[in-house]
Design goal:
3 domains, binds adenosine-5'-diphosphate, alpha+beta, binds zinc ion, binds magnesium ion, three-stranded antiparallel beta sheet, nine-stranded mixed beta sheet
Length: 453
């Protein structure tokens, strides 16, 4: 009997901290990273009784921008709800989030594999405080003790959550998706999305099913609080194996949240997963609904100011400059690099240096684009071409040879076909193994063709 094959089912939740000036529901600065603990706080983000939140418009605009870039629809009706749970990093006892009425819904993103991943929602919420756990030595008895510290600078920082449908079938696609989102956040200038700083966080939901099955497994394992991309990938890979083994030995898997132990290289149970109803979601009574007539202005603004997206840029580089797909991907990686490349192309055109050469140079030499200038690159490429044949006599010799070998093109040219000249120029280039000075070939060919009958 042949053994059943299993395939993983993976869905992702990505959180991004928005780079707004102030927090989501108060005026405290949201630029908290590395700042002295508990210096960016006020009654609202400390959750003091009676303090009233108000909505940061800039954050809503950035959330909409992300949604639109992912092909989502901005909801006609959206509002905030309270997600209630107890944890020391949550002073109010609830997180203001969105649940039933998220800001943006139903988008999609294309992966390199050619497969699309559906985006379920892009919603707005707030960050929690930051807990730090340490082992401290006490002076008196030099006993070590576990201590926990809370920094409220992070509470209330705007967070956007992007939730996919369970469309991933392998970790490669997960990697590609996460990279694309990070790149998008930076292109849109909505978040620096630095994973090490916790500005972008990944949660993966994993289950497995027999290959070819259409319906979703009746459980999912949520991999949470894993603060690096590498570990998330390792945890997903581990989970896929663990779950297959469990199913094969007829163990029942159930909904739970697991973390990653990088010393033991395995996932471990954190808690059995709570269900949505455990959070007692209800509409936030202190905040107004987001009304479409007011959102309309933001949507129009976002559309107007939408930059060319990385994937469009990439395919435009291929189609208009004829460069390799892999090079285009590298050159479109950041907006700055892409701009640099296009500036070099503009300048290269005047010196007869083609896009392929420039792409090649930038991709392989990786010049530091902060200090380098496009002009320098063009100069370097020109120098590199010093093997260039500029000597008129030599060029004439090449031209004569080409004229002899291309009687048809010569005839066409004499009949007035301008395109034939291009054929001749191309042949001279070819014959010279690319070394002829292209700017001098045409006049030389013209001269010869004029004097000869
Ligand atoms: P929660 O806040 O409870 O995690 P969300 O709706 O925010 O719920 O996220 C659920 C995530 O789990 C989505 O990314 C979804 O695609 C994914 N998911 C749902 N069912 C499965 C499944 N059977 N296997 C893997 N992922 C799943
Ligand atoms: Mg979740
Ligand atoms: Zn505050």
């Amino acid at each position: 009997m042949s053994k059943l094959k299993y395939e993983p089912v993976i869905g992702l939740e990505v959180h991004a901290e928005l780079n707004t000036k102030s927090k989501m529901f108060c005026r405290c600065s949201s630029d908290y990273f590395g700042k002295k603990p508990n210096t960016h706080t006020c009654p609202v983000c400390l959750g003091l009784p009676g303090a009233l939140p108000f909505i940061n418009k800039q954050a809503i605009e950035k959330c909409i921008k992300i949604g639109l870039a992912l092909g989502c629809k901005v909801s006609e009706k959206s509002l905030f709800e309270r997600k209630n749970y107890f944890y020391p990093d949550l002073p109010k006892g609830y997180q203001i989030s969105q649940y039933r009425w998220p800001l943006c819904i139903n988008g999609q993103i294309m992966l390199d594999s050619g497969e699309a991943v559906r985006i379920n929602r892009v919603h707005q919420e707030e960050d929690t405080a930051k807990l730090t756990h340490q082992l401290r030595t006490q002076n008196l008895k030099s006993k070590t003790q576990k201590c926990s510290f809370i920094d409220f600078n992070r509470s209330g920082v705007p967070l956007v959550e992007i939730v996919t449908e369970p469309d991933f079938k392998d970790v490669e696609s997960v990697r590609d998706y996460a990279k694309k989102l990070q790149q998008l956040f930076r292109y849109l200038d909505v978040s620096s999305a630095d994973m090490e700083r916790g500005e972008m966080r990944l949660e993966a939901n994993v289950s497995v099913r027999p290959e070819g099955t259409k319906s979703l497994p009746g459980y999912r394992i949520e991999l949470k609080n894993i603060n690096s991309f590498k570990f998330t990938v390792a945890a997903i890979e581990y989970e896929i194996k663990r779950q297959i083994t469990a199913i094969e030995s007829r163990k029942k898997l159930s909904q739970e949240t697991r973390g990653w132990d990088d010393d033991k290289k395995c996932t471990y149970l954190q808690r059995s997963k709570e269900e949505a109803h455990d959070y007692r979601y209800f509409p936030e009574p202190d905040l107004p609904e987001l009304k479409m007539d007011r959102l309309k202005v933001m949507i129009d603004n976002s559309r107007k100011n939408m930059p060319e997206l990385p994937w469009s840029k990439q395919s435009r580089f291929v189609s208009s400059y004829g460069i390799k797909k892999t090079d285009a991907k590298i050159l479109a990686e950041t907006k700055d690099l892409a701009e640099f490349f296009e500036e070099a192309i503009k300048q290269g055109k005047e010196s007869g240096i083609n896009a392929g050469e420039i792409a090649n140079y930038i991709v392989n030499k990786k010049p530091d684009i902060d200090s380098a200038q496009a002009t320098q690159i063009i100069r370097k490429l020109k120098e590199k071409n010093v093997g260039v044949i500029e000597d008129e006599k030599e060029l004439e010799k090449l031209a004569k040879q080409v004229i002899k070998d291309n009687t048809k093109a010569v005839l066409d040219y004499k009949k007035g076909k301008e395109a034939a000249m291009q054929v001749l120029i191309g042949s001279v280039m070819k014959l010279s193994l690319g070394k002829a000075d292209i700017s001098k070939i045409k006049p030389i060919l013209e001269k010869i063709l004029k004097v000869k009958p």
